[in-house]
Prior knowledge:
D-Amino Acid Oxidase, Chain A, domain 2, FAD/NAD(P)-binding domain, alpha/beta, binds flavin-adenine dinucleotide, 8-stranded mixed beta sheet, 35% helix
Amino acid sequence: MVEIVYSPNTENEVAVIGAGPAGLSAAYHLAKQNIKTIILEEHPQVGRPVHCGEGLSSLALKRMGLEDVPSSALGLKIKGIKIIFPNGQYTVFREEGYDLNKDLFEQYLLEKAIAAGASLQAECRVFQFSRKNGIWSINSNKMLIKSKAIVDATGYQSLGNKILNLDPNGPNLIAGAQYLIDNVKNDGFIEFYIDPKLAPGGYLWLMPKDKDRANVGLVSTDSINIHKNLKIFLTKVGLDKNKIIRPFGGMIPCSGPIKKTYAEGIILVGDAAGFTSPMFEGGTQLALKSGQIAAYTLAKAKEIAAEKKLADPYIEELLKNYEIEWRKNFPPYQKILQGKKFFYSFSEEELNTIAKILPNDLTNLDMVQKIKILIRLFAIGKNIKKTNFFKAMETFSYSVAEKYGW
Ligand SMILES: Cc1cc2nc3c(=O)[nH]c(=O)nc-3n(C[C@H](O)[C@H](O)[C@H](O)COP(=O)(O)OP(=O)(O)OC[C@H]3O[C@@H](n4cnc5c(N)ncnc54)[C@H](O)[C@@H]3O)c2cc1C
């Protein structure tokens, strides 16, 4: 057996690459279990620049035990989501959450991780890593870092997948663009606009924020015209004269998890593993949860290896528990992706008919309301293919906080 040369004073048990919600959650839960953890982040400041619509459900915070988030980071309390169809008709889903100030939220997560014992190396861009005798050598612009395990939390660019080729084809990415806009009044609801002309294969949003600001953006398969279409949308909702505080563009994984989310000595979390909610691409709750599952998997592997006197605790056989665990928790991706395809294949006319079929409020539908939907579907939805409608509606139901939708 090869002896592993490892000094706990100079080397880290786990290196977490990327200080987004996934990496910070992993680092916190690792450090909490007395596992020596270093976070490597390419930017000088954690959380900045913000690259997110910043919506997060109250349930996500509760589930993750994050109930002491400072109010400055929580931002604006949200009452629910309005889904607005091309004809302007809408249906609401009431579910509480926040439009965070996500930079402050991530800095709060960092403080928790540091208080638990993790350390941070900022302005540290990792570009390569390789493993020999159970130890990773991690090359960055700053230094060579050694660790026994890696948590890859590098976001949609998924450095681990690039280096280890865990899924040569995945994940598929969809383009997003967003402006932070000033002077926008709100009624506490997030607005999702379904508009196949401006956002084919995606949707547009208006996420109200504190201090009368809003994130206005879209995801769309038409990446070439994405900013042009966002400007048209701003005019449509009467915000074209408002000051744009900050524009940005980004990519979001949209095809579900990559084929394999772990390998010897490494676990991929958050966007790096392809974990976003399939319908509306929210990824923060899944990032936080996958980081936690990764941390507990690594801690358990360490414990088992100590019992069995294994030289390397992070063998695939022990890390496969990560996939077993997230599959138990996370939504059934293949099913939802199929429903999403049906939803985005509806024409504008069909979507407007669906708007008439659905009630004004989708929250806690009882049997009578469901039967009324069916009656309207058969009465006025002659142009709608029924199986596509049911599959699309099922996919919609996976967008709630309970199903890790936001
Ligand atoms: C336009 C847009 C709007 C969105 N809106 C929402 C929303 O409202 N709600 C929601 O839940 N989700 C939303 N998302 C998705 C959400 O932002 C992501 O799913 C979530 O941030 C994923 O977290 P993460 O930690 O996996 O990755 P990220 O948040 O992307 O964090 C990755 C971190 O890794 C760092 N990094 C990357 N490569 C390296 C490297 N080589 N070396 C060192 N550091 C590195 C990055 O700097 C970054 O800090 C949105 C995304 C976009 C693009």
